[in-house]
């Protein structure tokens, strides 16, 4: 069994505020300790469930938050953020299951901890063929396009609601309850760690039994980005193939979802260049 794990940071156990996930902030070091604990719990569960190869893709901000010497040696680590498939770099059609650890709800979800879509301030809304998606649904569709089921989602309560909307029957772990975008009621890590390990084990076992459905990825695919300002849309539309739609929206279309995904990663990076507030 080949297992792919995408690890974001806003939905990690004990993380509540932007200061916990931004490298320049004093709380960040403590945040990375919590990050490794959840990631290592998922790796341990994946191996216990029958995972023979495990790839962990650091999926937050700079994508240099997980340290090789603090991550379980049974996993390969993809570190660094110049990668065409962003949070899903390393996933191939040969993988048996994908696991999403430390995920968060999409931008605009009420009381959801650190809710956003890709950037802290720049993006109001991302849609796929007219349906609004967050990072979870966006990445799940890529797994679906490659024929890989998503077996586990961990994050706050709103993220788990979103997971059950996007996916047929995933394993989930609620590690905290959202009070506000920057405040959470955090469950004890002594409980969430073992729960993540057990849920990852079950997800890999279920994938081995063929018990996980593969997400849909509609094709052809049109992706739209609604930006907060006109200059972001103007910059994104400089890329050939990216269309400007009115003042603050850009769009890209491709026959295959993976191509639309990669084109949209370029559109988002270009539109957000030089602006503040990115926290992954
Ligand atoms: Zn994120």
Written overview of the protein:
The model is unreliable at 276-280 (pLDDT under 50). Helix 5 crosses helix 6 (257-272). Helix content is 30%, strand content 25%. It has a seven-stranded mixed beta sheet with strand order 3-2-1-4-7-8-9, with helices on both faces. It has a five-stranded antiparallel beta sheet with strand order 6-5-10-12-11. The chain has a domain at 2-117 and 135-208: Rossmann fold (3-Layer(aba) Sandwich). The protein is an alpha/beta fold and 280 residues long. Residues 8, 10, 104, 135, 280 line the site of zinc ion (ZN). Zinc ion is lined by residues 8, 10, 104, 135, 280.
Structural features:
alpha/beta; Rossmann fold; seven-stranded mixed sheet; five-stranded antiparallel sheet; globular; disordered C terminus
Order of helices and strands: EHEEEEEHEHEEHEHEEH
Distance between the termini: 29 Å
Instruction: Look at the structure and give the mean pLDDT.
Output: 96
Number of contiguous helices: 6
Largest sheet: 7 strands, mixed
| Text of the CATH class of the domain at 2-117 and 135-208 | Alpha Beta
Overall number of strands: 12
Tell me the CATH architecture of the domain at 2-117 and 135-208. Answer: 3-Layer(aba) Sandwich
| Small molecules bound in the structure, each named once | zinc ion
Estimated radius of gyration: 17 Å
Task: Assess the beta-strand content as a share of residues.
Answer: 15-25%
Tell me the CATH topology of the domain at 2-117 and 135-208.
Rossmann fold
Overall morphology: globular
Order of strands across the main sheet: 3-2-1-4-7-8-9
């Amino acid at each position: 069994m080949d297992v792919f794990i995408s690890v974001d940071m806003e939905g990690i156990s004990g993380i509540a505020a932007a200061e916990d996930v931004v490298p320049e902030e004093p709380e960040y070091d403590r945040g990375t300790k919590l990050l490794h604990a959840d990631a290592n719990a998922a790796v341990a569960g994946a191996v216990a469930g029958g995972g023979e190869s495990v790839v962990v893709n650091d999926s937050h901000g700079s994508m240099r938050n997980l340290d090789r010497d603090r991550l379980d040696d049974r996993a390969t680590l993809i570190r660094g953020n110049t990668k065409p498939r962003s949070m899903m770099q390393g996933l191939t059609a040969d993988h048996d299951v994908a696991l999403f650890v430390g995920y968060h709800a999409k931008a605009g979800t009420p009381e959801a901890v650190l809710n956003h879509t890709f950037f802290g301030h720049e993006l109001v809304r991302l849609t796929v063929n007219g349906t609004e998606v967050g990072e979870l649904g966006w990445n799940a569709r890529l797994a679906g396009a490659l024929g890989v089921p998503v077996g586990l989602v961990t994050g706050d309560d709103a993220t788990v609601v979103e997971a059950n909307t996007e996916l047929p029957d995933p394993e989930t772990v609620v590690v905290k309850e959202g009070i506000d975008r920057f405040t959470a009621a955090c469950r004890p890590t002594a409980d969430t760690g073992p729960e993540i390990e057990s849920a990852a084990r079950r997800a890999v076992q279920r994938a081995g039994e063929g018990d996980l459905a593969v997400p849909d990825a509609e094709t052809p695919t049109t992706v739209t980005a609604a930006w907060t300002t006109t200059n972001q849309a103007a910059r994104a539309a400089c890329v050939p193939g990216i269309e400007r739609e009115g003042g603050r929206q850009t769009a890209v279309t491709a026959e295959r979802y993976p191509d639309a995904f990669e084109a949209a990663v370029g559109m988002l990076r270009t539109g957000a260049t030089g602006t503040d507030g990115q926290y992954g």
